[in-house]
Amino acid sequence: YPSEFLMQKITEDNQIPVHLHVSVSLQYVAGLKGRALVEFFHSNIAEVENEELRHLMWSSVLFYKTPNVEVMACVLLSTKAIYFLLDDSFVHADEHQSDFWNRENSDCENSSFHLSCCFVLKLNDLQSVNVGLFDQYFRITGHSAGHIVTCLTRDSYNTHTFIQQLMAVLSLLARTPSPEPVDKDFYSEFGSKNTGKMENYELIHSSRVKFIYPNEEEIGDLAFLVAEKMDGLTNLPSLNILLYVLAFQVNHFEGSAQNSSSLQAKTLILTSSDLFLFDEDYISYPLPEFAKEPPKRDKYQLADGRRIRDLDRVLMGYQTYPQALTFVFDDVQNQDLMQNLTLDHFGE
Question: Which residues contact 248 (CB under 8 A, 6 or more apart)?
Fold first, then answer.
């Protein structure tokens, strides 16, 4: 261990997305190749001597206890645990949640050391994995609020690859088999079916970890929500969601020193008549079993919405991934201008 193929694959995956900024410590990790990367894992991260590194992925992550702080992480999957190597800046990002992290190393702030904190989720503690719509993200759930993490891959390929690798690693775990199901009688078997609510697709792995995928109803609920935001202007049956993608909205700041831009995570939804930007809660839904109350905010909050018929032009950047798109809309203040004109001129 490890094979040449695995080392080559891990080296290829060890690339930080160009549009996201990371600390010096994570830049150091991203510069490691092949055997140096495996040795770094064993000497600095691995908790057990005989565990094997199986997969590496760079992704933005959200924690259940700090739902408003999206942080870049190097995600390392081994045969024992999932490791999230985080920016040290994350520890200080949310002062209200400071008790979530051990702050023993705060005295090293002004030294020449570049620290990273590593969040560890043991595979034995893993209970379920929720895959988001169109494989744009997935949420890993452990046994408590401190063990819920969402990986915002924004890429169906990365999501699919990680899930496949995770399933393969979970197959190696020796867990006690589930008890045999109790034979149900006729009435209990058919009496509980009339809830009127379709459950999400569940795949229960041999390790007893649930892999939960969204069903068609989730798209239906989303279409209904979008139609609601459109103030009933559109016929709901004809409303089709053509595209759902996790993207970033670029906010450009023109300052005296230098022009800068910040990226704000948004969910972009395209229908046959409108383009919407939503602020989505990726970490709180579906509710974990131990949750005592619903989350403070809705899953989808409308940030912006424009009609396709008002779209004037689309500007495309020529850079490689990530592609920048600029949508230019006609600035019409009153959307129902023609209708009002008709009333003014031809009504009584």
Answer: 19, 263, 264, 265, 266, 322
The tokens for 215 are: 């069903």
Identify whether the C-beta of residue 268 lies closer than 8 Å to the C-beta of residue 293. Answer: no
Q: What is the rounded distance in angstroms from the CA atom of residue 310 to the CA atom of residue 329? A: 5
In the chain, the domains with their CATH numbers are 4-173+200-212 (2.30.29.30), 216-329 (2.30.29)
Show Cβ contacts of residue 166 under 8 Å, excluding neighbours closer than 6 positions: 55, 77, 82, 129
Q: Taking Cα atoms as reference points, which of 144, 138, 150 lies closest to residue 126?
A: 144
d(CA 249, CA 326): 10
Encode the chain (348 residues) as per-residue pLDDT tens digits.
678 999 999 999 999 988 778 888 899 999 999 999 999 999 999 988 889 999 999 999 999 988 888 999 999 999 999 999 997 767 665 555 555 555 555 555 555 566 678 999 999 999 999 999 999 999 999 999 999 999 999 999 999 999 999 999 999 986 656 555 555 555 544 444 444 444 567 888 888 899 999 888 888 888 888 888 776 555 556 678 899 999 999 887 766 455 556 889 999 999 888 899 999 999 998 888 888 888 888 899 999 988 888 999 999 877 776 778 899 998 765 555 444 444 455 554
Q: How far is CA 185 from CA 12, 22, 141, 190, in A?
A: 54, 58, 33, 9
| Residue 62 and residue 282 in contact, taking contact as beta carbons nearer than 8 Å | yes
Per-residue tokens: 153: 């891959």
Q: Tell whether pTM > 0.85.
A: no
